[in-house]
Write a structure and sequence with these properties.
The complex is a heterodimer of chains A (315) and B (232). By secondary structure, chain A is mainly beta. Chain A has five helices and 14 strands. Chain B has 232 residues and is an alpha+beta fold. Classes of the chains: A mainly beta (315), B alpha+beta (232). Chains A and B meet through β1 and β14 of A and α1, β1, α2, α3 and β7 of B.
């Protein structure tokens, strides 16, 4: 007996680090399979923040018969044709990934702060906008500035440690993936991505063990993964470092340590096919910052938890 | 309102909103795109498969499941196909690009609690009704080899121990084994379509390799519904 096997691990367009590349799926020549959806997520303001927020979370997942795919914020191309291989099978190819920008309000695709939204009083919106750009004056000892700070903090509700930090723009990373599947259920996914930032060439590597339970019950599937992320000094400094100038403007202690093990993370994703056209995709993700990342002054909490759920249409 | 309360509210809202998008009926269905991907793997495998076949079975989950008037259709915006079911509720699902692009659905006119879709790999029946034992052994190995490719974890350490012939209910086939020593009748007993399954309503004949038979030909008067590889 052959079980139905559709290793569907849909990916949200999440503003945090990229997930593993999807499995190659056979389909008729010239066809495509696409999922588009919108949902909500409850997640930290930025990597390491203790404050949580609700965000709208688009979900994008598309694959083409020639091996091209878009999964969340990544785009890649399967160069291998694993269907004709015997086990274990290799899936590999080039990969591009977009990383969300980060400013004083946190990290998101659209730097939408609910407190600067049109629903907030105009004076407060003004104040919050100004706070993002203004140096934090904790160290100046200036009484007027200190009072300003107090007002800023009041406006923001909770003082963000990203205030006074240089914003990070959208980053395009390039690299490759190589996934080793030793059965339809189990695979070891590896990705290596790089981009240039102001500290040099930033490298991030991920290693994930993925288990897919395709037929939990009729129309329900589960996708579970656990993995590690490694980053070199340039990658670590841009996400978790505080340089001398930023230390002055943000009030955070200077932090310029090297690279290494960045985090350990785990995800459970549950897909419920409501009909051939509609899927409800929900996920729970937990990551724990490690090593140099965990000790960063920007990290308020070493464990981050995100939940999300989205209604997705299959096109 | 704590985050947990909010999550609960959200889930409640979804539970209310979601059935609106779900299929209005509780009929058993399978997305054609998912079915296509599962079925096409058989064709893509490079290993030998000339003695075996893959079919989709609509398997009754209850003994009392009504099989009369059972209809399987492939339906989409530009797709409308009736898939005929044989006496053992098997059908050959065509692999069509148009239905894949259409995001069509395999739909049964019965509930999912009564029937489930199963992909079955079995030995192909021969039109002349003559099965040389050597060829049956080879066919069993082809089924096992295919299963190992499609789902290695489920077939770890298994091997072919024989074959089983299952015939239509209430039919009376006769089987005989022809060897150099002569021809003798082969016994039939009530059994399941596939070895190891619980129903006992089909006339079945089993042949195990450990019975010591190596040469000869099995002859049947009727075409079997299923010639299953016996894998343990």
């Amino acid at each position: 007996m052959t079980k139905f096997f559709v290793p569907l691990c849909l990916l949200a367009l999440c503003p945090w680090a990229a997930a593993q590349a999807p499995v190659f799926e056979p389909m008729p020549e010239g066809s495509r399979d696409a999922y588009l959806g919108l949902g909500v997520a409850h997640r930290p303001l930025y990597d390491g923040a203790s404050e949580l927020r609700w965000t709208l979370d688009p979900l994008v997942h598309a694959s083409w018969s020639n091996g091209l795919f878009i999964a969340g914020s990544q785009m890649g191309w399967h160069l291998s044709n694993p269907e004709t291989q015997s086990w274990p099978r290799w899936n590999y190819g080039p990969l591009l990934n977009l990383r969300a920008p980060r400013n004083a309000n946190g990290s998101a695709w659209f730097l939408d702060d609910p407190r600067t939204s049109v629903n907030a009083p105009p004076e407060r919106q003004e104040r919050v906008r100004a706070v993002g750009a203004r140096p934090h004056a904790v160290r100046t000892g200036d009484a007027a500035r200190a009072q300003d700070n107090a007002l800023d903090d009041e406006a923001l509700g909770e003082a963000s440690r990203l205030r006074g930090m240089q914003p990070l723009s959208i980053r395009l990373e390039g690299g490759a993936f190589a996934n080793l599947r030793w059965s339809p259920q189990w695979q070891l996914a590896q990705t290596l991505l790089t981009h240039r930032n102001r500290y040099g060439q930033a490298w991030t590597g991920r290693l994930d063990l993925v288990y897919t339970q395709a037929q939990l019950a009729a129309h329900h599937s589960l996708c579970w993964s656990i993995g590690l992320t490694f980053a070199n000094a340039a990658a670590m400094r841009s996400d978790f470092g505080v340089d001398a100038d930023e230390a002055l403007t943000s009030g955070n202690a200077e932090y310029t340590r090297g690279g290494g093990w960045r985090d350990i993370h785990s995800e459970v994703r549950w897909n419920w096919a409501l009909s051939p056209r509609w899927v409800l995709s929900s996920a729970l993700q937990v990551s724990r910052w490690q090593g140099q990342a965990a000790e960063s002054p920007l990290v308020e909490q070493s464990v981050s938890t995100r939940i999300s759920t989205a209604l997705v249409r299959r096109f | 309102m704590g985050p947990l309360t909010r999550i609960l509210h959200l889930l409640t809202a979804l539970a209310v909103a979601v059935p609106g998008c779900a299929n209005a009926t509780d009929e058993a269905w399978w997305s054609y795109r998912d079915a296509y991907r599962t079925l096409v793997r058989f064709d893509k495998q490079a290993q030998a498969k000339h003695l075996i076949q893959q079919r989709l079975q609509v398997q009754p989950l209850q003994v009392t499941a009504m099989q009369e008037g059972l209809r399987l259709t492939l339906t989409g915006t530009h797709t409308a196909l009736d898939l005929p079911l044989d006496a053992a509720l098997h059908t050959k699902v065509p692999l069509l690009k148009s239905a894949f692009d259409d995001n069509a659905v395999l739909q049964l006119n019965r509930g999912a609690e009564a029937f489930a879709f199963r992909v079955r790999i079995a030995i192909a029946p021969r039109p002349d009704g003559l099965y040389p034992l050597q060829e049956l052994r080879q066919a069993c190995e082809q089924v096992l080899g295919m299963q190992m490719q499609l789902d290695p974890a489920a077939h770890q350490g298994q091997q072919c121990v024989g074959v089983s012939f299952a015939f239509a209910r209430h039919s009376s086939p006769t089987l005989s084994l022809r060897t150099d020593a002569g021809t003798r009748a082969w016994p039939l007993s009530p059994g399941p379509l596939y070895p190891g399954e619980p129903d006992r309503v089909h006339p079945t004949a089993t042949l195990r390799w450990d019975s010591g038979l190596t040469t000869g030909t099995l002859a049947t008067t009727l075409t079997p519904l299923v010639i299953a590889a016996w894998i343990e």
